[in-house]
Amino acid sequence: MRRAAAGVLAALLLGGGALLALTPRQPSPGPQSTEATFVRGMIPHHAQAVTTAQALRRRSGDRTLRSVALEIELGQQEQIRQMQGWLRLWTLPPVDPAAPLPAAHARLMGMASPAELNALNTRPVPEAEALFLQLMIRHHQGALVMARPALEAGVHPQVGLLARQITATQRGEITTLSALLRRRAQTPLSPPPGLDPGSPAPTHHH
């Protein structure tokens, strides 16, 4: 009886192996693909978020802000490693996260200008804390716009999953950052163009 059961199990295992062997492998995304465009844009975008969070943590003594900044920093560093790994897997050139982007392109992505980043390090700490919140809200809103094409049907499943993770995480963080900004009675910056009307946006106070 046991021998018969073992034989059935072996046949099932062999059959499963044959099915796996027959499943076609998904081709790697090409250099002009939605997946590659998403990854190449999101790596420098994430890198700026890491830089911004580190600048805040160097100066601020606010425990809540420092905790939020650390979460952003660690989460986005991990996703950068994941995306660089995909580029290697797809035999596409790696992206230099520190390479400057054209100013107009960076603005569309909700990124901070060099002057805004410099102000994080030079303004009085309370002002720098409010600026961090303003910049990071706009930055996250830019990520929501950038992630949209990677949410479409037909995108490589792993890339689609990351785009959904980024969208969910950054929507949640926008809500948190907006509450912290309101507590400081500060006004948010204008969101980047193309922001989905359904995305969380800070309330303007007049």
UniProtKB/TrEMBL annotation:
Residues 185-206 are annotated as: Disordered. Pfam families: DUF305. Residues 196-206 have a biased composition (Low complexity). Transmembrane segments: none annotated. Residues 35-181 form the DUF305 domain. InterPro entries: DUF305_CopM-like, Ferritin-like. PANTHER family: SLL0788 PROTEIN (PTHR36933:SF1). This is DUF305 domain-containing protein. The lineage of its organism: Bacteria, Thermotogati, Deinococcota, Deinococci, Deinococcales.
